[in-house]
Amino acid sequence: MVDVRNVIEKIVKDEFNIDIGKVNPDSELRDQVDLDSMRFVEIYAALIDELGVEIPSKIMESRTLNQIVSIIEEALRQTGSR
Q1: Burial of 8 (0-12, 13-18, 19+ CB in 10 A)
Q2: What is the mean pLDDT of each run of 10 residues along the chain (82 residues)?
Q3: Comparing C-alpha atoms, which of 6, 7, 8, 2 is closest to residue 62?
Q4: How far apart (Å, rounded) are the C-alpha atoms in residues 79 and 32?
Q5: CA dihedral angle for residue 50, residue 56, residue 62, residue 68, rounded to 10 degrees
Q6: Distances (CA, A) of 61 to 32, 51, 53, 79, 80
Q7: 37-51 and 65-79 helices, crossing angle to 10°
Q8: What is the pTM of this model?
Q9: From the CB of residue 71, how many other CB atoms can be counted at a distance below 10 Å?
């Protein structure tokens, strides 16, 4: 299975020049990296493109990096992707 955390970190770093490698994965992600809602939507779309899997919209309600990773990993398991 793909390392979802690394994919997220790469997309956020490459697309938005935000380093989330040092954030607390159990704390509010948007506050730690000053991530507004529009950027979060753009990251969501980039993750769908990169992973080739439909990610449930409940990810938009996620607050922490660990929550985001869990939702994407579950979507990958359900589709049998990668």
Answers
A1: buried
A2: 90 86 88 85 91 89 92 90 56
A3: 8
A4: 31
A5: -40
A6: 16, 20, 18, 22, 24
A7: 30
A8: 0.85
A9: 19
The amino acid that residue 73 corresponds to is E
d(CA 56, CA 23): 23
DSSP assignment letter at 57: G
CB under 8 A, 24+ apart: contacts of 69-72: 69/4, 69/5, 69/8, 69/25, 72/4, 72/8, 72/47
As a whole number of angstroms, the distance between CA 35 and CA 56 comes to 20
